[in-house]
Amino acid sequence: MITLQHRTIAHFDLDCFFVSVECLHDKSLKGKPLLIGGQSDRGVVSACSYEARKFGIHSAMPMKTALRLCPHAIVRSGDMEQYSYFSREVTEAISESAPLYEKASIDEFYLDLTGMDKFFGSLKWTTELRQKIMRKTRLPISFGLASNKMVSKVATNEAKPNGQMEIAFGNEKIFLAPMPVEKLPMVGRETSAQLRRRGVETVQTLSEIPIGLLEAWMGKNGIALWNRANGIDESPVVPYHEQKSISTEHTFPTDTIDLQFIHRELVRMTEKIGFELRQQNKLTGCITVKIRYSDFETVTKQMTIAYTACDHVLLEKVKSLFHKLYDRRLLIRLIGIRFSQLVQGNYQINLFDDTQEMIALYQAIDSIKDQFGSQYLVRAAHVNHEHRPEAVNPYLPKGVGTFKKRYPGR
Question: Which of the listed residues 54, 189, 326, 381 has the most CB atoms within 10 Å of its CB?
């Protein structure tokens, strides 16, 4: 039986992915401060080049603030279709070679290479895979090779830009020791501030604190911190399957041809699983719509899309698929919607042309759905005025149930 200490894990990360794709299409952008995101006064930065980061710019920063820090920065709105295309190209290259891999996000992958040293060196194999990806996509990509996922990810960050690094088994603590605590995954601004207030500035200092004391300070997070500081991470590489999906379907009480009613159902169902998608912090790259007619004939149609979890984008695609599919003009018995090709990722990365207000709106919608239930906040397009949410739940705040009046066009 192979023990955890013998594992070999590679972490691949595409460097400044969105920026690199933009530079691939326009070579004049290379070496310049480049911002990807909304170009309006209320837009946000989705990604930025290393040159822009030197001015203190980071993702999720208001575009207005970023341009104040670097007035000569170049702004591009972004092209999620292109980013999704290159993400799939890299996934394909890895799937052709790796025995076991996990697609952690649109631009990040973990590979379990345990046991491959018996046949050839893992470093040599990983180096050749990196070169294959760069030849295929012409994009820079970095990797870290170590005994677990956490150390390999830190190694990748140290190898960037466009580099590679191997941490030999047994050297995990030595590698991490001199680093500031912020270099550890999951150590954010708040955790960092707590540690520094207690005089903990380096990973080595953190690793020397008794685990019981860290648990007293931070609860279960303290135990996790101690493990990371000591180079311990037993989390497995989760096999990636394109078949993973979120779906819903509805069989009507009476077969119908009422398109207005069907459209309302499409909106309701799309919002329902769109919310589930965001709850799981995932994006979908493929939509499937299913229709079952009254004679029980079942037809489906699917569409590969740019990775997203935004309702207004998903609704447009779902409706388009339905109208292409519904060609018999017979009574409909059932409709279904499925989102597949799921990857980890925050839906904000798709809001290149949207504003802070739009991002805040999605966050507010999801917060209300968390509190009261997803069925109590719906688009006006599918509100049945005889069954308004307030009538079902009298404890809902007045106005919950529709946001079309406040945010017209959404």
Answer: 326
